[in-house]
Amino acid sequence: MACSKIFSGDLPELLYGIMRHLNDISSLYSCILVNRTWCRIAIPLLWEDPFSLRDYSIIDYYLYNLSENDKIKLKERGINSDLFPSNTLFNYPSFIKCLNTWDLHHSIDYWVADKQNNSILDLNLLYSTRLVYKLLFKLFIENEATLHTFKIEIIMERNHEFFNDVIELILQNPNFIHNVKNFMFSISYKNVNDLTEINSLLSLLTSNINSFSTIYFQFGKLDTIIKHISFMINSQKNLKKILFRSSNYPLYDSLLSLKNSNCSNTLKMITFYQINFSNISIFKEVFDHLNVMESIHMIYCRFFNSDFIQQINILNKPFKLRSLYILDNTYQIDSIQLLLQKSGVYLENFGFEFECHEIKQVLKSITEYCTKVRFLAFPGFIDQKIYSAFDIIKNIGQTLNYLDITFHGMYIDYYSDELIEISLIILKNLGQFLPFRLEYLHLFLYGTIAASDFELFLKNSQNTFIKKLLINNLIEAENEDILPNLLDKYIVKKRRVRYLGFLNNLFHLQEEYKYYNVIVKDYGDLVYGEFYDCINERY
After folding, report:
1. Is 229 in contact with 199 (CB distance < 8 Å)?
2. Which residue from 329, 433, 335, 430 is spatially nearest to 380, judged by alpha carbons?
3. Distance between CA 106 and CA 86 in Å, rounded?
4. 3-state secondary structure of 467
5. What is the CB neighbour count within 10 angstroms for residue 346?
6. Which pLDDT value is given to residue 9?
7. How far is residue 89's CA from residue 44's CA, in Å, rounded to a whole number?
8. Rounded CA separation 35/413 (Å)
């Protein structure tokens, strides 16, 4: 098929398919330099999700397309349009496919602050940011952009006010959102009041779009919103993934909508994130109605009590629990053990909070029932439970791909001596239990790491290739050459790592390491901010 397309002159179509699946910004940038054909294919792909890249200069290229009247409005706000590009080769506003309202707002804040040399809290900046926000939406719509991913994320009052400004524009131009496949609606701002405009938009989405593939909901007890959400779930005909998030989320209504929806033969994945399962009595009847469910994720959820777990145990279908992250003191140990007995064979991702009671029994159950775990997230330890963690890693063996051991800032000084001891135990022993290959290893231990202890870890892990190695601790050495020498000896020259992200600054070694195909990155660019980030990337 590929050969026939080449000979029939369909090479651009093939190139587009290849570039779309590269999923790598640097590779797409390289494609631009090959020739005009490659450039014309790569540029639109690079501009599909522009505000996720945190490159605020892209706004200059968008605003080049403004009318003279709109440029005058900017000038009145102290933004000189003469600094915009004098010409652009592409119609960049038409390329956008993914838009997150929070990312957009955040990018504009910093862009305006730079243009006006103001603090991002300056009052004039707020007015200017609000204007640019409206102008960008106007540009996208006027240039006939059509979104396939639309994320409405309201974190603070300003997000709500800014988004209200553009809702009428969207309502008047529904083509902008009529092809959306991935929809997110998130209100984490607790004091949101007037939802009139947002309700109008949700009404449009509910009545006009029944082909969402992915839906993400996060909000509390907002009665007018839940009605639209229930209708939206009911109307979908091709829904494959859905996420419910928030400790105050009205789960009962949404579950009831799932039971009565058209997606019983399409929905394959459900994520429950920070959900309170108390007083949920319809779990069994809902899940028995879902015929093709392949992936269930329970992350930071509460109240895994016997009444709730019993509903899972009597399901007529397998409960394919892929992810479980349990919080401290919100579960009954017997209930968790029953859940792992029921679904442990499916479990691929596991983590727990720092102060989980009776965690040793939970770890024992993981070792006994869960042999397919790929991602482990441990929050550090304050006693010898670390050896139970080693047992899990050893028992899982080559299946393990992702490992995160993180001592968060919740520890108090009372534990400092013990935490230092546990950190040393990890450095001295972890390497010998690692599989031959890891996609991701993140260590955030307690305090600084002595170079001699770090060398012991490197020695013990020499048989493991680690695609991404992240260490969020300063590594102390007698002189500045010791750490680079250790990395050269155990990692770089043996090509045992693809990406390095350390708290120590390694960027002066960037060019040297490229020769060995090892890439130095900023720690923050590589780390998963939380357990869910890894799940979201892989499913």
Report:
1. no
2. 430
3. 26
4. strand
5. 17
6. 46
7. 12
8. 60
Which of the given ranges, 24-38, 256-270, 398-412, has the highest pLDDT on average?
Answer: 256-270
The pLDDT of residue 250? 83
DSSP state, 478? S
User: What is the token pair recorded at 434?
Assistant: 């690692």
3-class SS at 73?
helix
Sort residue 234 into left (φ over 0), alpha (ψ -120 to 50) or beta: alpha
Rounded Cα gap, residues 20 and 46, in angstroms: 10
Q: How far apart are CA 189 and CA 220, in angstroms?
A: 10
* The pair of three-digit structure tokens given for residue 409, joined into one six-digit string: 């800032």
Tokens 């779990």 correspond to 283
User: Do residues 105 and 132 touch, judged by C-beta distance below 8 A?
Assistant: no
Average pLDDT over residues 446-450: 87
Q: In whole angstroms, what is the distance from residue 41 CA to residue 29 CA?
A: 11
Radius of gyration of the chain (CA): 26
List, in order, residues 6 or more apart from 453 with CB less than 8 Å away.
424, 427, 428
Give the β-pairing of 349-352 and 214-218.
unpaired
Judged on CB neighbours under 10 Å (0-12, 13-18, 19+), 271 is buried
- Give tens-digit pLDDT for 390-439: 888 998 989 999 999 988 655 555 467 778 888 899 999 999 999 999 99
Q: Which of 115, 130, 248, 243 has its CA nearest to residue 184?
A: 243
- Band (13; pLDDT cuts 50, 70, 90): low
Phi-psi region of 103 (alpha: psi -120 to 50; beta: other; left: phi over 0): alpha
Paired tokens of 485: 């020498």
| Residue written as token pair 């999923």 | 23
